[in-house]
Amino acid sequence: MLDIKFVRNNPDAVKKALADRAVDVYLDEFLDLDEERRKKLVEVEQLKNKRNTVSEEIGRLKKAGEPADDKITEMRSVSQSIKKMDEEIREIEEKLQKILLTIPNIPHETVPVGADEEDNEEVRRWGKPREFNFKPKPHWEIAEQLDIIDFERGSKVSGARFTFYKGAGARLERALINFMLDLHTREHGYKEVLPPFIVNADSMTGTGQLPKFAEDMFKLENTNYYLIPTAEVPVTNLYREEILPAEKLPVYHCAYSPCFRAEAGAAGRDTRGLIRQHQFNKVELVKFSYPEKSYEELEKLVENAEKVLQLLGLPYRVVNLCTGDLGFSAAKTYDIEVWLPSFNIYREISSCSNFEDFQARRANIRFRREKKSKPEFVHTLNGSGLAVGRTVAAILENYQEEDGSVSIPPVLQPYMGGITKITAEK
RNA sequence: GGAGAGAUGGCCGAGUUGGUCGAAGGCGCUCGACUCGAAAUCGAGUAGGCAGUGUUGAUCUGUCUCCAGGGUUCGAAUCCCUGUCUCUCCGCCA
After folding, report:
1. A269 touches strand B (CB under 7 A)
2. Active-site residue among A21, A161, A362, A390?
3. What's the burial of A39, exposed, middle or buried (CB within 10 Å: 0-12/13-18/19+)?
4. Rounded CA gap, A278 and A285, in Å?
5. Under 8 Å between Cβ of A244 and A215
6. A55 touches strand B (CB under 7 A)
7. What is the pTM of this model?
8. pLDDT, tens digit (0-9, with 9 covering 90-100), for A218-250
């Protein structure tokens, strides 16, 4: 959510940001409503002031045993006017809030202006895609031949885009989760959290999933609960409605969680394999930062996520998302894309964003610079470190051998009970 | 699931026969005095949102906020209704 005062004072900047994102918002209507609200507010506050002073007087008169009937009658009508005006103001505020909640964040000045992913800007590459002397297979073929992932039974038991991991596949997934958590907690200074996987609507609004993106999520019927689409939601909302002591900043958390996504509107895309599932695992990194340090923190966050791929020996590139591809709440986002040989392209495996104070304002997460200074909004950041399912896919594809077996990256071997290779069971 | 109790400022905790209550008191914190310094002691200060003023986030003014949302009333932390959460006991359960 943007600062209403900022929108009021910088309508042109907001309009430009909206245009760059190709988003339609009725900003002029918003500005008119805002002005009307303030006008009415002044009026009603004057009336309230009158009510307060006269009511006090009535109390004094009654105590002294003097009559106050005429004043009471007068106040009766004043109170009625106040009630009416409060109602009008409330309606205006509701409209304002509704619009405000659907205005996306303003892109940072270093974000390239562009229409879609074609206009994203490649920042760097790491690692060289391996040259195969045979035709690399897609990960779902490898996995099925090794009998470590069962897509068909996943569909039977749940539906499309659900899978069973089995044997070494299940263990690989678990190994990756532990490897990532260990790396981020031991080497990168993140404190681990294991959050609830179900949250309420307030939390979803706090991080920006609601009200605009309700159809992307699974809602539990007859409740106010949602399955989390990412650990970003519970972990960022950890400090909702709180004022953090300055000495605690920056706060770093990492969290494993399953993620549930309805993938509405993605029918027909990535129908095979692990790339797009209704349920997948992810290790998430979340930061709460001083405003002036948040872009520094973003760079460090991306590097922390990259480190996972480097240690796993998976080639990747980092791209700076353009205005048209940028998520609703983000001011700037780096995607990390891992090399997938069978696709012959880089595919998103991590998304690291700085939300500046956009989520903090929605969720009311603040900090106090000095003991006596006013609370300010923190900046929030998060990034995948990494999406585990896609990492499994990348390992299977990049480490596959011609005989159908898959080598285990050395850093993962301790987590896999020392095995160096996944081979088909006899 | 059944029965009961409760939700007040950074924390603890008064206030529940409605009327100078944004809220006593204590702790904590900040500043000052004392001290070579510290402790102790003494004095002062110590919520947030919105709006106006100023103008750039000093000050001043108004207003709202005592879990949330409604209601009664000239006036509610105090009365009524609904919801949420917490605690205790019982039942059930991993």
Report:
1. no
2. A390
3. exposed
4. 21
5. no
6. yes
7. 0.93
8. 998 878 889 999 999 999 999 888 888 888 889
